[in-house]
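User: Round two. Same drill as before: sequence, then structure, for each protein.

Assistant: Same drill it is. First protein:
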Amino acid sequence: MDDPLAGLGDVDWAGLSHAYGPADDVPANLLALRVPDEEERLTALYELHASIYHQGNRYEASAHAVPFLLALAADPVTPGRDDLMYLATGMAIGHDEAHLPSGVGIEDWRREVARMRAADPADEERRLDAWVEEAAGPGERASRKRQRELLDAGAVLSNAEAELAAYDAVRAGLPAVRGLLTDGDASVRAAAAYTLGWFPEEAAASVPALRTLLGAETDPAVTANALVSAGLLDDRDLIPRLREHLAGAEPLPRWAAAVALLRLGVAEPPVIAELAELAELAATSITPPGTPGTPVAFLNGDLRLYSATCLAAMDDAPPEAADAVLDGLSRTSDDASFPMAAAALKLAFGAPPGPSLPLPPFAELTPVQQRTVRTIAELAPGTWDWVNLWEILREWGLPTDRDACRTYAGLA
């Protein structure tokens, strides 16, 4: 096989930037991904996460690193190839929770970047100022003001262009990714199947490849990743096969089929029942028997959260959906509670009305709204120490202090 790092020295890495400045350390870290010493490889992978994908952000150097990561992932000699695939995919889309359950809205994304490129910089500066002034209250305004001081229209455009460039770099490498669907390593197949679901512009080539994989795959987690990706790519011809999986005995493909069917608009009772069952689990994931090393990649394998997210996105969710999500929320703590609380609030109250609306008396809330507020009020005290929870509650106009929320809910 050709050298996957051929041309690495031809890139002016020092002239590119990442989270910590010039990206001249990227080549050494890419080279270290193939050394025999595992600790050295893991250190290099950590350094790449920290520099070209820092906290989900992408930079000038990110798109330039993508072809080398994908080439390394495609080379059977490279250790830990699935990790490299996930890093490349992360640089394409950021954190996947931002795109679920509907998938990547690439048309809107491209349209917004084009608008920013054509905009008058002065108009963009005024947009940023207006964003600060539109804050709902003093606390949020102060937070936005601090962010505003670090931003200018040019930086916002540069960041947007870096994100889209990284996405398109992975898109250009999808032929190699589709080739990995037949790899001998189940973890690599799972990573490849996961990656394909984020590129709807490539559905015409990716959907047949995923169907071929599903026709031969025996690993439940790989099958699950492929089914979810097929749903994200709007493969409606797969609905009969999805129904077969939904009626099957394997838990992971059954769950994934329910996710894909709901994404495709099939909101039948068995679909809702499957997702509701997962949403109320105490554990966040299912370990497929015999395949402990093969992950369900979506939302880092948090099947409970993914199920709750799917149910919360429904326009007219049945009562059992809210009950299941609340059961699941009651079993969470700390950062695991935040997205579950948002899903529960959306199911109970609909889209967030904003904190400017007056809070109605608790007695005037519907039974499911009352249960939702009480479930949140009864979360562990440590969970209430996080600003993340306050921000979610503020969107729905609920108290951001635990004692105040308990008082509002009529609790001691």
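Second protein:
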Amino acid sequence: MKILLTGANGYIGRRLFPELLAKGHQIVCCVRDKNRLGLDKATLDLIEVWEVDFLDEPQLKNLPAGIDAAYYLIHSMAASTSDFDSLESKSAENFNIYANAIGIKQVVYLSGIVNNEILSKHLQSRKNVEDILYQGNFKTTVLRAGIIVGSGSSSFEIIRDLCEKLPVMITPKWVLTKCQPIAIRDVIKYLIGVLLNEECYNQSFDIGGPNVITYKEMMLLYAKTRNIKLYIFTIPIMTPKLSSYWLYFVTSTSYKLAINLVNSMKIEVVCKDNRLQKILNVKPITYVEAIKLAFIKIEQNLVISSWKDSISSSGFKTNLTEFIQVPKFGCLKDHQYRKVENVDQALQNIFSIGGTRGWYYANWMWSTRGFLDKLFGGVGTRRGRTHPKHLDSGDSLDFWRVILASKDEKRLLLFAEMKLPGEAWLEFRIDEENVLHQIATFRPKGIWGRLYWYSLVPFHFFIFGGMIENIIKSKPLE
């Protein structure tokens, strides 16, 4: 069976992809930027890649042929607080044009539970996308999920941040809203189970786990599972905006995502029925079991995907290739270089930079810069990194985005997502003579950009010099 997988480098897409491949399906990965797939050459040889942005005017040339079914896994909630609904609608409309031209038999869409008459903007947008997809010349199957629990999921990571960092919480009344969390592995089972299943054509199904609990109970169960003492006190006076700031500063979520999440958390997301569970004979696991399984993945460094690596979550440009060529003119640079005796060791240290490993010198300064960035609405450093030793193009890395990560080329290129009066790149490259080049490039915007750079020059002398020395000397992670 030939499957079109949209959102192939998203949280759900990266979990679904290996399962489909293991079942022997032919996969066409549909992405806006093929450089973000992060697949090895052997895997790339097994698939097709279709590079397309559904927000652009459809171009019906060189379309993939022979597609049996498609997964529509495109969401824009984290990209904006105002117009993500119009973006999602436009994307779905353009997808229909492509799907009709290709001749796809079935489209499977992962939506949100919409069992209230009054919906949040986020859930109403998902419902609008459903309605648009039902207008296509194909069979549509919609799976409606609430809170998805798994290593790297936004819901799980937010709860994890809150419970691990705050032993005492003063919370708004929306924590008493009921929801029905579902484990990521069960979501994948449902997504695969409905594939070209005629019993599921032109229908919408609610999917959830066996537990109907409040958000407060979710946090308390998390704390009990992790053996953490947690006290939660609920007050009725915390406004949605204040709640959004609270989530933004305590967790690794972006402010845009925090606003949309808070607005959605005021609405109950509980399944109406369990029809699909009976049709596919799926027995979903409990919320506590989902937490335990998530930590097994985390402790073994087997987190396949994380919401934090989403491009839209930081408001970054969608095309990474635009930044691969570091500009040469009108830029300010700090270029450090050292001869490397142990190339493999230095390369391992380069690719494990950031996150819990830190930046090899004056980590408190990097943390302070991250805190200031958070105060001014930036991403800060709380995102960390998904894997301690492995990086792919497109991954988030503290307040950087990985533009290019190639151990074969001995090169790592980062682009800054922090709030800056300009644009910044940080490059690590080992040349043929085993010389490590560490180049910080800044393209200032106006006089403020130049003042910003020159005010930091004294700190650059110590930070960048110390960093390259310790990259060469430090022992690699085991």
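The CA atoms of residues 96 and 133 lie 7 Å apart.

User: Perfect.
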